[in-house]
Amino acid sequence: MNGITKSIKIGSYTLAMRGCDLLRQNGIACEIRKTSDADGRYGCIYTIQVNQNSLWSAEKILRSSGIMVLP
Amino acid sequence: MIYLDNAATTWPKPRGTAAAIAEVLSFRGANPGRGSYRMAELSSETVYKCRCRAAAFFGASAPENVIFTPSCTHSINYVLKGVLSAGDHVIISDMEHNAVTRPIKQLTRRGVQFSKARVHEGDPDATVVEFRRCMRANTKLIFCTHASNVFGIKLPVAAIGELAHRNGILFGMDCAQSAGTAEIDLRSLKADFLCMPAHKGLYGIMGLGLLIINCSQKLATVIEGGTGSLSGVNEQPDFLPDRFESGTLNVPAIAALDTGIGFIESVGRQRLEAHEMSLIWRAYDVFSSMPECTLYTARPETDTHVPLLSFNINGIPSDEAAQRLGSMEIAVRAGFHCAGDAHRKMGTQSGGTVRICPSVFTSEAEIDQLIATVKEMTRNL
To answer: Mutate which of B236, B239, B248, B249 to disrupt the A interface (most A C-beta within 10 Å)?
Structure first.
């Protein structure tokens, strides 16, 4: 991915995988990364990395597909 | 060896199974859903691929609704103990495996009540009436086998599921003897929970079970622990599949299951079922004409039975018959098959039965060899 990327926090690897499948089907480039959230609220989480200009659409697609996006 | 113990576990496994396991052990051996390096990603992808394939095969609404467990027995325990608590009532059938009856017995010590509905072979309406008769105001769950592991008799699960849902009752199925062979499609079947092993009709290997959840009911957990997700939180995750997948998954077995389901898809489930049933007919038609043999069911049909057969050779205890067949390189199972209730129902509690179950790899010649051997055994009776 080129340009500025943004992270969408997802609880589990399975949901992140399904989320990425959905985003790619909708033409949105993405990658999964395992990370630890900065404030330690959740501990280990997965993020879906998308371009900044796709963030709003990506979150909308994920939420409408029942994939829980962590705040 | 002629292997006819496929109801216990299918053997041999499809070509490609051993290679899939070796691939995991050699190149994808990291812990799935934990690390962020390439091999961990490959391991996670292996799990996700199989989850997607299983979800599609059984018509689950999403891959995360497929939970990997250590066995079908674990899956059943997760459902029974996750749904039921003191004061609840559950209905089971009178043909259940001990994987159902024993957890139920344990749950009665915690104040759970249960009823056993009588199964009427060949009369699905009467069976459904029995389930309806058992219903109470506090019935929370109907849980039954899809098909008896001893006698192959199928329960009318579509109608039982309808009955359950019409009355606001959850419905779960033990698909140990039907998954991979009989039709199970959650797009039409009103089942909330499917429990199944990987190593039987799905042609996977031992050490893996599936629990497919098809409802929004939040089950209580039986096992809690590390899931690789939300690790900073002491509370068990409430989302699927992590809620029920604490501990490291059996990735080699998951890779084998993926190969197994792929194999069934390539052969065609209906074709596989028809082949196995034709072999059962071959044995049934001969044994039913032999006065020295006792059979316990009507001639099996795919809408009423799964392809397996219990019989006895009169005058030879089932264990001895199985031992003698085994000594002639024919592998069958004898005894109670971990289902005492089914034997008490069918009147075979004094010595059990000999059970045969073909797989897609069984040939007509092998069944003919079984028949010839049984005939030989009856010659000196």
So the answer is: B239
C-beta neighbour count of B313 within 10 angstroms: 22
The interface predicted TM-score of the complex, written ipTM, equals 0.89
Distance CA B154, CA A3 (A): 59
What whole-number distance in Å separates Cα of residue A40 and Cα of residue A27?
Answer: 32
B3: part of which helix (H) or strand (E)?
Answer: strand B2-3
pLDDT tens-place string over residues B255-303: 999 999 999 999 999 999 999 999 999 999 999 999 999 999 999 999 9
**For chain B, domain boundaries:** 2-11+267-378, 17-266
Nearest CA distance, A15 vs chain B (angstrom) = 7
- CATH assignment of B2-11+267-378? 3.90.1150.10
What end-to-end distance do the CA atoms of chain B give, in Å? 26
Domain A5-64 CATH class label: alpha beta
- Structural class in CATH, domain B17-266: alpha beta
Chain A residues whose beta carbon lies within 8 Å of the beta carbon of residue B239: 11-12, 15, 68
